[in-house]
Amino acid sequence: MQIIKFIFIISFILSNLYGASSEDELKAVVIGKVSHFIKWKKEDTSKEFIITVFQNHAFDSHLDILYKDKKIHNKPVKINYVENIQEIEFTHILYVTKHSQKDQEAIIKHTQKNSIVTISENKGFAQRGGVIQLYFVSQKIRLKINNEVTDTPNFKISSRLLSIAKIVKGND
């Protein structure tokens, strides 16, 4: 019964988000929403919940505006923008933009070693080892989650989130 209630709530939230003025705003909201269903297993001593955007060609200031004075996992949210892989420091979530497809393999290897949840809308991202791929169907946002990547000692994605996502493995 609780799973049905959860799916209804997520569907309601996502359907109400379509009033957002752009897809980028919608993606910014979804990043925060999915983070509530992820538990990092390594001890997290950071004072902030950090979201990093690789190659800031998406979002403009949507993330900054949306998460100003907000908390995720009872921590204030900090948004970082990086232009190359060497700049990626500790972060909870790394959003990989469409413009960074050529760097995806190196990013995925780096993030898998460092307990970083990756999110992208790049086609095939989840199948290549990314954690969460966003995609649109009939103007509604959907999630693909790579189950092989989530089955690690680094973090755990709630079964409630997994139940509303399309689960992929390797090269599905």
Write structural notes for this entry:
The protein has helices at 2-16, 23-35, 62-67, 104-113, 147-150, 159-162, and strands at residues 38-40, 49-54, 71-72, 75-82, 93-96, 117-120, 132-137, 140-146, 155-157, 166-168. It is an alpha/beta fold and 172 residues long. The protein has one domain (2-168): Response regulator (Rossmann fold), CATH 3.40.50. The chain has an eight-stranded mixed sheet, sandwiched between helices. A two-stranded antiparallel sheet has the order 1-9. Mean pLDDT is 81; it is low at 15-20.
SSE layout and pairings?
Blueprint: H1 2-16, H2 23-35, E1 38-40, E2 49-54, H3 62-67, E3 71-72, E4 75-82, E5 93-96, H4 104-113, E6 117-120, E7 132-137, E8 140-146, H5 147-150, E9 155-157, H6 159-162, E10 166-168
Parallel strand pairs: 2-4, 2-5, 5-6, 6-7, 8-10
Antiparallel strand pairs: 1-9, 3-4, 7-8
What is the second-level CATH architecture? Answer: 3-Layer(aba) Sandwich
Count of individual beta strands: 10
Number of helices: 6
Q: Report strand order across the widest sheet.
A: 3-4-2-5-6-7-8-10
Strand content: 25-35%
Q: What is the N-to-C order of secondary-structure elements (H for helix, E for strand)?
A: HHEEHEEEHEEEHEHE
Give a short overview.
The protein has 172 residues and is α/β, with parallel strands linked by helices. Helices cover 30% and strands 27% of the residues. The N and C termini lie far apart (31 Å).
